[in-house]
Write a structure and sequence with these properties.
Chains A, B: Residues 434-459 are annotated as: Disordered. The structure is a homodimer of 459-residue chains. Chain A has 459 residues and is α/β, with parallel strands linked by helices. Chain A is 40% helix and 14% strand. In chain A, helix 10 packs across helix 12 and helix 13 crosses helix 14 (400-415).
Chain lengths: 459, 459
Amino acid sequence: MTTSRRMKLGASFYPSGYHVAGWRYPGAVPDGGINLAHHIEVAQGAEKAGFDFFFLADINGIWDPDIDAVSYTTWSAKFEPLTVLSALAMVTSRIGLVATASTTYNDPFNLARRFASLDHISGGRAAWNLVTSATASEAANFSRDSHPDHGDRYARAREFVEVVTGLWDGWEDDAYGFDRANGRCFDPAKVHRLDHRGPFFQVAGPLNLPRPVQGHPVMVQAGLSEAGRDLAAATGEVLFTAQPTLDGAKAFYRDVKARVVRYGRDPAHLSIMPGAVTVIGQTKSEAEDQIAALNGLLEPKPGLAFMSGLIGDTDLSRFPLDEPLPPLPKTEGPKGRQQLVVERARRDGATLRELYQSIALTSSHRLVYGSPVEVADQLEDWFVAGGCDGYNIAPAHAPQGFTDFFSAVVPELQRRGLVRTRYEGSTLRENLGLPRPATRYAAATEAEQTAPDPETIAS
Amino acid sequence: MTTSRRMKLGASFYPSGYHVAGWRYPGAVPDGGINLAHHIEVAQGAEKAGFDFFFLADINGIWDPDIDAVSYTTWSAKFEPLTVLSALAMVTSRIGLVATASTTYNDPFNLARRFASLDHISGGRAAWNLVTSATASEAANFSRDSHPDHGDRYARAREFVEVVTGLWDGWEDDAYGFDRANGRCFDPAKVHRLDHRGPFFQVAGPLNLPRPVQGHPVMVQAGLSEAGRDLAAATGEVLFTAQPTLDGAKAFYRDVKARVVRYGRDPAHLSIMPGAVTVIGQTKSEAEDQIAALNGLLEPKPGLAFMSGLIGDTDLSRFPLDEPLPPLPKTEGPKGRQQLVVERARRDGATLRELYQSIALTSSHRLVYGSPVEVADQLEDWFVAGGCDGYNIAPAHAPQGFTDFFSAVVPELQRRGLVRTRYEGSTLRENLGLPRPATRYAAATEAEQTAPDPETIAS
């Protein structure tokens, strides 16, 4: 072991695995997205293995407007994340619960309440993966003609975070407490209206529940673009990213950590966790056989549609499959990922078929495959080289891909002292080594308390 | 037993009981709204007693803009309903789970997903108590200067229900199923875009999860006004109502059932369940002592503020406490309840203090109190006389008020053959004797299938 840092691990739960055709793999659970027992199995397994969190990605609709293409996948039959994580809170006790929720298609008051409720129910294990949504087909489910452009989405997201954290702060930590004698359930001097008035939102507050156990649920983000990196540096505590190469990962890591410092924050308080799509065999060649089998199970139609959606709703079906990718138009989709795909096509001279097969397996994430020891080696490499603080682990097919990781890779990483053998704390914040934020009102109230108001609970 | 109908029962969960000062009552759980163990105790107790459902009321904010008044109560420290009901789904197996959600301050796509998710997670036990929201202070949490007027709220509610049920219907019942051989997870010919375009909403769909277990989660409503009764008659399956007198209850019952028939529906498919605030003692005089004790625990400030909010944000603090209620201005609040309060004041010549004490105990609901046998008698009376199909039971203080009802009143009602001794089915719909709605697309698809499309799964 070459470092005393602990590698952070997330279990990135896709219904039947990360691969587009993962549900067809022998032993995979085909209805994983609406199979509660499967969710419980993976969440409890990850907790037993000491993972930091269980993570649910999300989009607000089917993943492509073409229902026929979608019918080849099991991804668009899934529980809403906060709903199922509330259920999973009852059958787990230490693992963090990360729900994706969009700032473009939600309302800050409702979302603040729901995350605060999950945080209370789970004893301080909630986290919010903030996304601004990426697909035009989501807009069509929310009475909008088009998806708002990238700049507007991020401006709204920043204000959204301000409102949500302001609502969480509205009840000071010691506001709630009972005085049967004078009839008060809480100290009214320690519960504050927000009275936010911004360009996107006007929100009075306060929230109708006390401050979350963690102060704020942990803030997770996933932006690759300039605006995304900046929002994460300002407000994020975990950053998901797609990094297929170590050089790229290191450059990204340096850039983001420098931005965190520029915002006056401790760089250790933003954990950078690239995705790692894992394929684990007894041997490397057995893992390669699994990949070949997954390629064989992938029909061209969902492969092309998934690639199109990933790079921003570009219709690729009119291009020949066995020729290099033609120039792509600009879109309002996720800019960072489009750039990765284009760079990769140029670098490798890959044909469209080769690209969609590769993208169906990893999207634009890193592929980590081989024997358990080889997988552990690859995870350790980047971690030690300054490419990441840990990984969001997404097995190509599930549940076997998770089971193998928990039972074979985790013990290997534990032997190397890289991952925990027991949880340090009871909240996600404690387990990630993150500080518990003070409420923005705490200082003001201390000042007020020097001149007590006879109308308050102190009387 | 004078009837073969079964009396329906709901457990109306308020944090520490229905009474404004219920949390101060000896033995009450003061932090009931954020006490998960207390929720579990009541939900499991209600299930053991054969209740039809566990019900959570809700507003989107603190119950009054005056934080000082709110601090006398424990009502504004509570979990968001759908979040905590998802958790309760894991520790119960038969009881229905009813969440209140507003059509004014939610989005139909999000709400359709969340209720469908809860219905899947709970094995078909979800119900939606549709409200249009009643208070101006909720508007201020959602970037609105004022609460929309009553007519607009109901017009939006009707379209909201159309969108939500349309989204639930988008996946036909047999759409989801796996064909590993041809690579399909569902039959694309049986998943339908909604393409709704109305004055309030434009929603493409389809939803990203299969049809709810119950087809539609059970539809609960609570309107007393003309528009409210009409919406319930058109789309409701359970109707909550506040009825302090039997004559009023009978007139309401006849009126609503006639409306249901006018909409071409079976009147048995809308259960009318007035609220019953219960106070149970060993004897009637012991129950009266409990009421006197609760009155003694009620401070004037929260008593007046609660009454003001109930009748539509009218400030009553400037009126003398021991004189009759002066004429009230018109508001955009809940019309039906304002009328009840005004009628009652005129009927009884009650002073403001007498009114707020009575309202703090029952709002404008029926009070049912006495020994377990006397409580059972009163519940049977209205049920047999054509006043209701059952009750939404709200003990004045909790958990004791629930425990006494489960252990003493329910066995008495069972002896009389009025309530069940075991659940008939596994879904809420089955237990309420409600039909499972067919999807609106089922017939169309049957027609299409006579001329198969080579592009569909049938090929």
